[in-house]
From TrEMBL:
Keywords, ordered alphabetically: Kinase, Serine/threonine-protein kinase, Transferase
Name of the protein in question: Serine/threonine protein kinase
Natural source organism: Rossellomorea vietnamensis
Repressor as UniProt keyword: no
A molecular function GO annotation: protein serine/threonine kinase activity
UniProt cross-references to Gene3D superfamilies, sorted A to Z: PPM-type phosphatase domain
SUPFAM superfamilies xrefs: PP2C-like (SSF81606)
């Protein structure tokens, strides 16, 4: 599980940024996560003891939106103003007093990924932590410890860990699985800058072209490809007579 968790985090960070720029966030992240799930699941079938199974929660901030992908029992909270909200739901099953993950990366050949998309706001704070923390701190204590000095997020994580460990030890159980990470949105881009019509001077999108049509000094000779997302044409520059692909 430790190897699966480490590999999944490193691979997601590397592979997500390698996906084509024209894909939306959900498509890119889902493709990466499904590939990771297939790899971890195949590794689990080859080991005699243990398994390559891990929870994973990933937050992608793009433009003025947040995209959250989740499977397993890790926890993600959002602190917005005085509101402290859990954004993920636990994929666990209670059996005989023990809690077991009912969904996680590498557990099955196919994976069902929770996905949430929401508008981001300047000042939003996101807290990532582990299932073991449940039952230690109250929501009001999370807010108090974070707000005590939110300018230093590392120090805030240390305060959370120290308080959670003390609470766990006072109740007689271990705290070696505690982990905290905080992410804050300090600044957001101008929403208008994300509108392609604004960026490109309100140019209209041309209709589908046919052989013989002309556009910006180019004549369409043939349609090479037609998909739901794109068109590819063989064209000729009317001035230079040079043939190109558009």
């Amino acid at each position: 599980a430790k190897q699966a968790g480490d590999l999944s985090v490193r691979s997601f960070l590397a592979d997500y940024y390698s996906t084509p720029d024209h894909l939306d966030v959900k498509t890119s992240a889902t493709r990466v996560l499904r590939a990771l799930n297939a790899w971890t699941y195949s590794q689990s079938r080859q080991v005699a003891e243990g398994s390559y199974v891990t929870s994973l929660s990933a937050l992608v901030l793009r433009g003025t939106e947040g995209h959250l992908f989740h499977m397993g029992d890790t926890l993600v909270f959002r602190l917005r103003g005085a509101e402290f909200e859990q954004l993920t739901r636990d994929h666990v099953t209670d059996l005989g007093g023990y809690r077991y993950p009912s969904r996680a990366l590498g557990m099955d050949n196919s994976i069902d990924i929770d996905y949430a998309r929401f508008p981001a706001k300047q000042g939003d704070l996101f807290l990532f932590t582990t299932q073991a923390v449940l039952g230690t701190l109250m929501p009001s204590e999370y807010v108090q410890l974070i707000r005590q000095d939110a300018s230093d997020l590392d120090a805030a994580c240390d305060r959370l860990a120290e308080a959670a460990v003390q609470r766990a030890q006072s109740r007689g159980y271990g705290a070696d699985q505690f982990c905290f990470q905080l992410v804050r949105i300090d600044e957001l881009p101008d929403a208008q800058s994300e509108n392609p019509a604004k960026v490109y001077g309100e140019l209209p999108i041309p209709p589908e072209l046919s052989p013989g049509d002309r556009l910006d000094g180019l004549e369409v000779l043939a349609v090479l490809s037609r998909t739901a997302q794109s068109r590819v044409y063989r064209v000729r520059d009317l001035q230079s007579e040079r043939e190109m692909v558009m």
